[in-house]
């Protein structure tokens, strides 16, 4: 009796200890987050902030932080602040140096969460965890986490829309995105039975603003949510914070104050931004308006907003004297908060304002043209933070004036980015079209945009335009006049130089014409000549215009008797003949035009004739260099030529410009295969076959499928082999009897009347049936009926490992032979085992689609041997 009492006392002591232990660790953690500031190449100051329940017996003067590199530190608390509603804010700060570059998960987990969290079952026994991902990458530069300026604790009113914003401010100006996620528990992993708070209409996080919107809570109580704040730089994710937040839903008739509508702002650096913020309370109670945001944390010229309290309606002015150091790609988020002083339950409301500080536009853009280049100059930006300038060009005016917050050069202006220069004081750029030379005949317009280290762009400069200096010939025509593979001809025509200075460039003159047998001038040959300043055309003959285009480079030269040489005046112009390529297909031909000319072609006239016709007929007009002529007859020859219509950008140059391609012929033929049939494979285990059934593409995507090819492989890692061809398009079934196993993969393709075979994309695999089955009884009594224990008929079994045991656990028989063939005798005594129930284990090695696999069988065998149990048979 005394022993029983001691045991009872021991168990009571254990129970008491566990209850005390639960009280020590429970009802504690409510919210928290981890942030860091980079102090050196691999050194970071890490800050953990937790919010705990002040009435809980648990407290953490120090806490463990795991750094993600295999090390952990016990970190003392450096600050504690007692807050209303039994909250306490705890701050822990530690400096840690990492061994090198990499991605690290900074983690804190602690017993336990506070009791009664409705969306975390048994929350009092669930560990509390927060974590932050740190990426150390020297290529990304210095990085610190965003700072959350709103604490992760709040109250929501039942039946009213609740909005909370963490007010995340990134001091590095990185992009932030937000999403709701699952709260964390053991080892920083998501809590398995966590559920998001129930909402009448919706529960979501705005991924851009960070607003957590709960529309609306229906049940009173405490809830926890987690928000992941992701940090991005140049499109690359560089870190994230998982912040745990607690929300208490309360019952109240009070309504939150109303903040009147506020607009987002764009402000040019060095300007002052001012606006009034107004809030009122429908219950005529006192309202306090306050504001948080990164703009109040700036070292240089921070913004100012005075917290103000007044009855019914309150107003306060936001004032910010911006400067160039404030320019960044991401807008600044400023949050305004209005809180009433209702004695029953204080409620608050929020309004967000995004403020974009923009760099000033570059000024005083000037252009200095030659006959093939333009030197672009501008004044240095007054913002020394500028990293460089981007140069945009267009060959006509856009008359663009940026709207408020319309930064850079919008795509709709049709300006092209041509280059950039580095450095705030690099203020000129020579535009020679990357060494090719600008072509005559256009007015060239430019805009300059300053860019900053984080990718921010300024307003664009005013549009400035200029023409190239004149005095060089301008090509007007490179038109095929005769199509032939030997005696083809191309008509080249140009415009005599305007404003030509014959005093500085005395004659005699000649035009030198270089030719290359392609579109882009890969191999110019020795020139041919056209003599005289007033000569403006040349017929290039005896060329294979049927199969090849030709590009021309020509310039005006004058003769210098002193040096006995011909010298170019200006730079050569280039233009190629229009080349037509035909792509015949099923009942259609696609026309594709290759062109390389200094003017702009804005329309094409398509001509066609058949071999029986004498003249070409106009069949279409298009503004694209591709055209598809449909509804043709396969097997019939069709011939085409195209006329391009174009112009330069200046009125002083004749327009329109007409140029012809060569004549080209083709025969439409079906080269497009049918879609692949949709295949189904069924194991017929009894008949040892695979039954293939597929769809007929003639009923959906084709009209001329004539046969099917069936491919098979026993292993999806090996090549397929053609096993049969079915010549009836309406026969869409096939029975396959594999030689070794049913396991294998099939592909069925459709073949059309032009021998086009569909893609081999519809692979379907079938596995072997599990044929190996064992009977549950046999009678080795010597009567010749059912005397041997063996499996039912089987296939595809390589071997087995079977062991049969008596009811006392003694091994009576074992074999690796799939046929088993047990005669009912004990393998040691060679005597019949007694009648009774025996247990077996059997591992079966079966050939499957993935290879040889082991299947485990177990069960009972009823043996009728006609003998009774005896000790020697146990």
Overview of the molecule:
The protein is mainly beta and about 850 residues long. The chain contains one helix and 59 strands. Strands 6, 7, 9, 12, 15 and 16 form a six-stranded mixed beta sheet that branches. It has a five-stranded antiparallel beta sheet with strand order 1-2-5-4-3, with no helix packed on it.
- Helix proportion: under 10%
Radius of gyration: 42 Å
**How many helical stretches?**
1
Q: Mean pLDDT, as a whole number?
A: 91
Number of E-state strands: 59
Ranges where pLDDT stays below 50 over 5 or more residues in a row are: 1-27, 870-874
Q: What structural class is derived from the secondary structure elements?
A: mainly beta
Main sheet specs: 6 strands, mixed
* Ends apart, CA distance between termini: 43 Å
Strand content: over 45%
Oligomer: single chain
| Shape designation | flat
Characteristic key phrases:
mainly beta; 874 residues; 6-stranded mixed sheet; disordered N terminus
Structure summarized in a few sentences:
The chain is an all-beta fold and 874 residues long. The chain is built from 1 helix and 59 strands.
